[in-house]
Amino acid sequence: MVPTVTSPRQVLEPVRRCHRRRPPRDEVAVSETITDRETGASRPHAVEPSDDRGADLGYRPFDADNHYYEAIDAFTRHLDPRLGSRVFQWATINGRQYPVIGGQVFRGVSNATFDPVSKPGVLADYFRGNPNDDDPVALLRDHEPIRAEYRNSDARLATMDAHGLAAVWMFPTLGMLYEEALKHDPEAVTIMFRAFNRWLVEDWGFARENRIYAAPYLTLADVDWACEELDWALAQGARSIVMRAAAPTTASGQVAPGHPSNDRFWARVAEAHVTCVVHAGDAGYTSHGYANDGFTTDFAGVPQPIRMLQLERPIEDFLSSLVCDHLFVRHPNLRIASVENGSKFLGGLFDKLRITARKMEGWWAEDPVETFRRHIWINPFWEDDVDDVIELMGADRVIFGSDWPHIEALPRPLDYLADVAHLDEVTRRKVLLDNVTELNTP
């Protein structure tokens, strides 16, 4: 069986930087009953034991990167069945269910139903340098039935209590992958994500009990649609929106996200004072022959470390284009958060921006790095060195995210406390709580 993989960095070799090992965690100890939305049946919900490692903080952290595993009908519940063959439907092939997107079988995720699914954070040590020399394929074969909190907001709130979290930003898993597969038909892209967003607000809400903040997915494949969808999402209480790090494909070809033709969308975002999150996903990038192209879930076969070196290209291109195209000059209240895209690109990008500014004197009215720092927040990979990111961005622009419950996530969100324990109290609170709270406040 090919293991389930749910984010672009899961196809990469481990970062060879070892960190302190984590203590073992207790097994699930408590059980509640949760009603399954799809079947109406009651089923037991295992509640994790409380994580009291944050008790001395005096506050509960706000996790800026949590995920749900989409319900089977997430893309079809509100989709006109007559459009299934053009947009999205399911197919059973050799006993396994696969999404069919735009009439093509999507194999980017081998287990798109997520039942069973690998455990949260099963690759955590692997991404910290693989000190045990584990075989990632073997780790991923340790499956369990899907947990209620992956698809049920009541169960997720109970899990957040156990994890010691005040609130979370909640993002798609499959939803970050599907635009690329359908980009040849921009209208179909908007139809698919309109249906998806209606499912999202129905199952999760955009501000559930002011603790779970699920972000609707928006695309600039059609700027008129994006404006209408944004207005709808704001009326439903959305505090943030999410898109992938890619120049959208429109009916007339690709257009840079910061192009003036998109200004009416960005003006609405800035006026509403909601944060646009650019989250890792399938950006459609090519390795130009240096490695196999396409999003993949397969850890088996010959390693391709070149893909690790290319991992942060999409977010570097996306964010730098916003600065180069003067988006923040035209919309000075705009806030962008990069989530689960890494941070190693920052130093080199800042050097290149300053060199370019010297070569193109007059293009920017100020240091472009200062523009970048004013408008952009960075959620580094949890295995990145947070001190490096703070030095580059400033303590006010770094946000904590665990990526829970993905396989490359922290097994429990507060595992991150060990990585920020050395920070002074004010800086630590900014990273764990204050910065994302500011971004989440209209």
TrEMBL record:
GO biological process, any: secondary metabolic process
InterPro entries referenced in this protein's UniProt entry, alphabetically: ACMSD, Amidohydro-rel, Metal_Hydrolase
Keywords: Lyase
Biased composition (Basic and acidic residues): 24-55
Disordered: annotated segments: 1-56
Amidohydrolase-related domain ranges (all copies): 184-435
GO molecular function, one term: carboxy-lyase activity
GO terms for cellular component: cytoplasm
Name under which the protein is recorded: Amidohydrolase family protein
Native source species: Candidatus Neomicrothrix subdominans
